[in-house]
């Protein structure tokens, strides 16, 4: 029974991750604006995902434990490019690409670098959520931020929480991400409701 539930959590998480950023991408494309979507949040999230993926590859974890990360990273890169395009900052795309490519290489120069980066990964990912929250609080407007994307992020954190309950560091990461994803979703919905009543 538990094994079946774990399999269900794993496959449903993978399925959600395969499309997790599509609602956000569709919202930005439809509006031709990324208003409300924090570029800093996307950059930090992308950093956290890249560190996590690099760590998994470096230590030879089975592909099924990190298969969703390349898909999410690709979606985040597309989102970043759309944000840069609609904000008129496409020249920064090359700069970010060089930084991320260099970071990908530097992470595995020494074992202690990748280990330290992985230990900081939860803080990096949490910071991405807090940066998005700060953006929402400052503007008091959810703009083109997709509540569905953030809800799906909360779901994946909850399902991974269930699937990885025995690994303390990963457990703390997913609890933190669950709380912050729910918080960002609630803030988006709060400002969306407030805007409709104005």
In short:
The protein has 198 residues and is mainly alpha-helical.
What would you say this structure looks like, in words?
This protein has eight helices and no strands. With 198 residues, the protein is mainly alpha-helical. It has two domains: 1-140, no CATH class; 146-197. The longest helix is centred in the last third of the chain and has 30 residues, at 168-197. The termini are far apart. Keywords: Membrane, Transmembrane, Transmembrane helix. This is PQLC3 protein. The chain crosses the membrane at residues 12-30, 42-61, 67-86, 93-110, 170-191.
DSSP strand content: under 5%
- Assembly type of the chains comes to single chain
Please give the alpha-carbon distance between the first and last residues: 50 Å
How large is the radius of gyration? 17 Å
Outline the biggest β-sheet. Answer: none
**Which word captures the global form?**
globular
- Secondary structure tally, helices: 8
- Tell me the count of domains: 2
Helix content: over 70%
Transmembrane segments: 12-30, 42-61, 67-86, 93-110, 170-191
InterPro entries: MannP-dilichol_defect-1, PQ-loop_rpt
Subcellular location: Membrane
Keywords: Membrane, Transmembrane, Transmembrane helix
Features:
2 domains, 8 helices, 198 residues, mainly alpha
Secondary structure elements and their pairing?
Elements: H1 2-19, H2 22-31, H3 39-58, H4 68-86, H5 92-106, H6 111-139, H7 147-163, H8 168-197
Helix pairs in contact: 1-4, 1-7, 2-4, 3-4, 3-6, 6-8, 7-8
């Amino acid at each position: 029974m538990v094994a079946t539930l774990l399999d269900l959590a794993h496959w449903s998480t993978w399925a959600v991750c395969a499309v997790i950023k599509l609602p956000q991408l569709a919202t930005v494309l439809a509006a031709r604006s990324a208003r409300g979507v924090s570029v800093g949040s996307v950059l930090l999230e992308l950093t956290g995902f890249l560190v996590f993926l690099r760590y998994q590859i470096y230590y030879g974890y089975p592909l099924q434990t990190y298969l969703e990360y390349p898909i999410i990273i690709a979606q985040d890169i597309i989102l970043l490019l759309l944000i840069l395009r609609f904000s008129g900052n496409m020249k920064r795309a090359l700069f970010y690409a060089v930084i991320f490519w260099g970071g990908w290489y530097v992470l595995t120069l020494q074992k202690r670098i990748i280990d330290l980066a992985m230990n900081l990964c939860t803080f990096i990912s949490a910071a991405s959520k807090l940066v998005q929250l700060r953006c929402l609080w400052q503007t008091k407007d959810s703009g083109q931020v997709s509540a569905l994307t953030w809800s799906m992020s909360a779901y994946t954190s909850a399902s991974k929480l269930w699937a990885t309950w025995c690994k303390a560091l990963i457990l703390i990461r997913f609890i933190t991400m669950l709380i912050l994803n729910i918080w960002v979703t609630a803030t988006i919905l709060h400002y969306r409701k407030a805007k409709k009543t104005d």
